[in-house]
Amino acid sequence: MFMRSIEKDIHEHLSGETHKILFIWGPRRSGKSTLLAKISAEQNARIFNFEFLSDREGFQPRREILEELARNYPIILIDEVQSFPESTVPLKLLHDEYKVKIIATGSSELRKKGQEFDSLAGRYQELYCLPFSVDEISDNTPHKAYEEAGFVNQLREEVLVYGSYPEVFAASEQKKDKTSLLENIVESYILKDIVSLYELKNLKLAKDILTKIALQIGQEVSVREIASSLLANVSTVSNYIEIFIKNYILIPLPSFKTNLRRAVSENRKLYFYDLGIRNALVKDFRRLDLRPDKGGVFENFIVSELEKRRRTQRLSLSMYFYREYGGREVDVVLENYDKEYQCFEIKYESQKPTPVFPLPHTLKLVDNKNFLNEIRQVR
Known about the structure:
This protein has helices spanning 7-15, 32-43, 53-56, 63-72, 88-98, 134-139, 148-162, 166-170, 175-197, 203-214, 223-229, 234-246, 275-282, 294-312, 371-376; strands spanning 21-25, 47-49, 75-79, 101-106, 124-128, 220-221, 250-253, 268-272, 317-323, 329-336, 341-346, 362-366.
């Protein structure tokens, strides 16, 4: 079975003395339920699926119910926790009163529709189960050292076109099988499920917004321009985008601000966690060398891999882009809590990087050959 990078953290949590609730977040179909089933088999623990009313009924804030739950299940596994946001109250009581181990997976935040729920502040830890990272794929794919270059090339082309959702990556090499799976994920989860969960009014608008963003990867995104082109309200478009960010579809990359006047940008860049989803939206599954958007696609690839590493490795890093009035840019700036900066220039073909960032920093070029090694070195 495919070993996920967060499994070590999960096992440390289960074997340690902490009783904090462990939330595992990530988009649907990213492998969370598979991971939970693996833990269930290893620990002989029951999985409660909060999409089932019968499973939710066992988590009411009543002492006799929670006492029985804690007595019968020293380890509690919960799937689809976002389907029952009111569960924060019984989860808090289970943590405070009964000290049971709780692992809960979800595809979005617990708060929904502006409702107020009891806080779990200080009572939980978070991990992320996202589409496969290239590091995970490499670690789970045996290959000899002399095969590394060919493996990296093949991996790059696969992920740049079809992304790395587990079921898509594991599907047959038939193009129609992978594209069919991706179209299903877009239509059934990314659109219908999210629109239903948040009671959004316009499924077509949701898809049109995502498609507009898909056509602008690598560029700053103006919510006003998208709203104007779709004849939609600016606040509505902004709300839809924030929901896609909260549900691990889009990665926001804000502009790095310094007190130097030459830095400029009020807009964010938006990238996709998974390029298969992006390519399904624009209906283009050609090889990268045949595509005019090659540079933007590769840039999205590197940004998504850096974001996956930042989340799964729990790195204390913030991620930005930087642009000057003169137009010169740094594609990615990573900032740690000590205000140390790693800058990345992302180019599909190798070039000499040009220093632009005004503060002391390290500068690296990430290209189609060295990307795996450079991503692994991010700490």
